[in-house]
């Protein structure tokens, strides 16, 4: 079973779905975006990318968030982490 299958995906992200015909994840989160929630999203994406072995598309509608509670230092750390994954940069 693919890590992107709807049941696996919805366990971690209840308002998400994978559309295999488009290789697309759609997600409509709500509540508060915290450092911990952002980490969970990045870890899932990294795991899915590694498991799938090929790229997939993503769409996130963030209008359901009532608040974004991320520290600037945390955003920078996540951006550097993702950049390293794509470029191998340190």
Number of helices: 3
Order of helices and strands: HEEEHEEH
Radius of gyration, whole Å:
14 Å
Mean pLDDT: 85
Count all strands and give the number.
5
The CATH topology comes to: Transcription Regulator spoIIAA
Biggest sheet character? 3 strands, mixed
* CATH architecture level-2 label: 2-Layer Sandwich
- The CATH class designation is Alpha Beta
Beta-strand proportion: 15-25%
Number of domains: 1
Low-pLDDT segments: none
Shape descriptor = globular
Instruction: Provide the helix percentage.
Output: 40-55%
Report the span from N to C terminus.
Answer: 33 Å
Which structural class do the helices and strands define? alpha/beta
Strand order of the largest sheet: 1-2-4
